[in-house]
Prior knowledge:
The protein is of the alpha/beta class. It contains twelve helices and seven strands. The chain has a domain at about 5-145 and about 170-195 and about 245-250: Rossmann fold (3-Layer(aba) Sandwich), CATH 3.40.50.150. It has helices at about 5-10, 15-25, 30-40, 55-65, 75-85, 120-130, 150-160, 165-170, 175-180, 200-205, 210-215, 215-235; strands at about 45-50, 70-75, 90-95, 105-110, 130-145, 185-200, 240-250. It is globular, with a radius of gyration of 18 Å.
Amino acid sequence: MTASSHLTRALSFNAAAAQYAANRPSYPPALFDAIEDLAARPFTGARVADIGAGTGIATALLHARGAEVIGVEPGDGMAAQFHRTNPGIPLIRGSGNALPLATASVDFLTYAQAWHWTDPDHAVPEALRVLRPGGALALWWNTYALDVPWIAAQVHRIAHAFGTDPVVDTNGASTRAADPSGRLDFTRRMVRWSRRVSLDTHLANIGSHSIFLVQSDETRTAFLAEEKNHLLTLFPHGTVEETYDVDLLVATHT
Length: 254
């Protein structure tokens, strides 16, 4: 992906923030249990900055875990939706490449579906700067469970039509891709979960990915209509079970 197309896709979410908030999957409690386990510290009472917070899906869950959490989001549309959805949680504008946070000011830095939009050459030093000693950087992605046949087939159809999206390119992220400098010692864990949703919600979810958002309305609508007809042969009652493997990387700042 070229730098210009990467930026275009990163900015594409702003026009679809409401669709994103309404249809994107959340994250299971087991994910946050795993982060606490790997970081060897609880979220309760911790100072947390959720970077690339988007509409606040992960930010709200961190808040519910008892964290003193603040969101950081660069996009106008996503920030506006964040404020509508989470009026009681503070949000500041910025990105992981230049964090608007004081040095040694947070116990956790979290990136939910967001690290791949950063430049690790800038984001890694910034993470190390703002984390307190013993603090943890947690990166995670809801990735497609490719051992589920219908999901693997759908991913293949999307890739055939448009190429792959940043998450599917690696089905998450390798530790090498997350930090090419090798300055962070990541531990990796996979957390499987699923949700049952209507077929329309499922289609709105996949349609909220950047690979769809940068297509023309006609191209996007045509593909999703064809996909709906295909899935109705598999799920005639109109309900699908989306299965995800959350790809989690955690590194502690010593």
